[in-house]
Write a structure and sequence with these properties.
InterPro entries: Kynureninase (IPR010111), PyrdxlP-dep_Trfase (IPR015424), PyrdxlP-dep_Trfase_major (IPR015421), PyrdxlP-dep_Trfase_small (IPR015422). The protein has 425 residues and is of the alpha/beta class. It is built from 13 helices and 17 strands. A hairpin with a 3-residue loop joins strand 16 and strand 17. The longest helix has 26 residues. The radius of gyration is 22 Å and the shape is globular. The chain binds pyridoxal-5'-phosphate and (2S)-2-amino-4-(2-amino-3-hydroxyphenyl)-4-oxobutanoic acid (3DJ). Pyridoxal-5'-phosphate binds next to helix 5 and helix 6.
């Protein structure tokens, strides 16, 4: 399709967009009395209007039933997490028994590393991406320390080539081969938070496992954003937060995937708690831990249902829409945004550069723009004029045209504001 940088054209795309009406299901902040153009769904998704009712339901059950709510609430709290199995498994391409929800992302990655990072003899190294999200870097450092190794020896980063913004698949595979029988774990962000680069999860997982390592994924920027087939790709484990593309609210609960083949492994160490104990016998208060067969066996505490409620609202919305429709719009609107950026760049001559891969196979709902010119003041200008983006040092703004609530007209309007911000403030 040949795109045009006009309001009429953008409106025509909106009129043909089957997801366009979902915008009305979200609450947008306002700047200058106008709803914002929201590009930071990769950091914190907008609040769906339906979410409040899910929270109210729990508040009402709590008021009316108090402790009895665990078993007699409209949606009983003691097994509330099971409502996620079906819809969440579809979102991440898993069997229902392979997913659960609990804790928060970094906590879950730590808990999964307890099970899947078991350094022994010469096999103790972890491969990750260069400039992984800082929380992941701190996690790796603390985990290798915990096992008695030195981070500079045990953590192997895959580097970008000189002058390049993204990591090449061939370099990931070469590094895995090079580390070979010293490799204990590969753990990478499925979508890089900074550049928006999408990694080839299937190929990297197979290569890591061929080298004798376990392979896990931080799917913070991938869940609800890219097509995942975690079961078929044979991924060992994964975790993601729900507050980005999945719109479940600030700091909210995390999802976890553990591949079926690990469910009955009696030798796998894990940190246990009563919510991971055999569901039928949980309230018999027995002394010996008998894990639930499935990802639920990694649960520890009883669930914070007040924070799971918004997540449930979200997965039900995803079930309605389906990942295929989301991804179709995602690719189209991201390409339109890329076109708008190139059009504006022609007029402002080399003020910025898109560092996200231009190949649609290697990107999803994010374009990261490196600003050569004014940087921070341009970011401030956009914010003041109702374009919510985020700033990442040293000079990058990230734009996520989230398909559930961004419109094509938003992309056009953004282009006009950006141009004014660079040329004519
Ligand atoms: C890739 C990645 N990993 C980890 C985190 C940390 O998540 P949390 O603070 O929920 O543990 C984030 C976002 O904050 C992230 O983007
Ligand atoms: N969770 C966040 C927060 O509480 C404050 C600021 C930012 C965040 C984020 O989630 C950042 C996000 N992971 C990122 O990709 O940058």
């Amino acid at each position: 399709m040949t795109f045009q940088n006009t309001r009429e054209f953008a409106r025509e795309l909106d009129s043909k967009d089957t997801l366009n009406h979902y915008q009305e299901q979200f609450i947008f902040p306002k700047v200058n009395d106008k709803r914002v153009i929201y590009f930071t769904g990769n950091s914190l998704g907008l609040q769906p209007k339906r979410t409040k009712a899910y929270i109210d339901e729990i508040m009402n059950d709590w008021a009316e039933l108090a402790v009895e709510g665990h078993f007699y609430a409209e949606k009983p709290w003691w097994d509330y997490q099971e409502r996620f199995a079906e819809p969440l498994s579809k979102i991440v391409g898993a069997l229902p028994s392979e997913v659960t929800v609990m804790n928060t992302l970094t906590v879950n990655l730590h808990l999964l590393m307890v099970s899947f990072y078991q350094p022994k003899g010469k096999r103790y190294k972890i491969i990750c991406e260069e400039k992984a999200f800082p929380s992941d870097q701190y996690m790796f450092q603390s985990q290798v320390h915990f096992h008695g190794y030195k981070p500079e020896d045990a953590i192997v980063e895959i580097k970008r080539r000189e002058g390049e913004h993204n990591i090449r698949l061939e370099d990931v595979l070469a590094k895995i081969e090079e580390v070979g029988d010293e490799l204990a774990l590969v753990l990478i962000g499925g979508v890089n938070y900074y550049t928006g680069q999408v990694f080839d999860i299937k190929t990297i997982t197979a290569a890591g496992q061929k080298a004798g390592a376990k392979v896990g994924w931080d799917l913070a920027h991938a869940a609800g954003n890219i097509k995942l087939e975690l079961h078929d790709w044979n991924v060992d484990f994964a975790a993601w937060c729900s507050y980005k593309y999945m719109n479940s609210g600030p700091g909210n609960a995390s999802g976890v995937f553990v591949h079926e083949r690990h469910h009955n492994d009696p030798d796998l160490p894990r940190f246990a708690g009563w919510w991971g104990h055999n569901k039928e016998r949980r309230f018999k208060m027995e002394p010996n831990f008998d894990p639930v067969h499935g990802a639920g066996g990694w649960q520890i505490s009883n669930l914070p249902v007040l924070s799971l409620a918004p997540y449930l609202a979200s997965v039900e919305m995803f079930a309605e829409v389906g990942m295929d429709a989301l991804i179709k719009k995602r690719d189209h609107i991201t390409s339109y945004l890329e076109f708008i950026l190139h059009e504006i760049d022609k007029e402002v001559a080399g003020n910025f550069e898109i560092i996200t891969p231009s190949n649609p196979e290697e990107r999803a709902s994010q374009l990261s723009v490196f600003l050569h010119g004014e940087g921070r003041s341009l970011f401030d200008y956009l914010m003041k004029n109702g374009v919510i983006t985020d700033w990442r040092e040293p000079n990058v703004i990230r734009l996520a045209p989230v398909p559930l609530y961004c419109s094509y007209e938003d992309m056009y309007d953004f282009g006009q504001i950006l141009k004014k911000g660079i040329l004519g403030k």
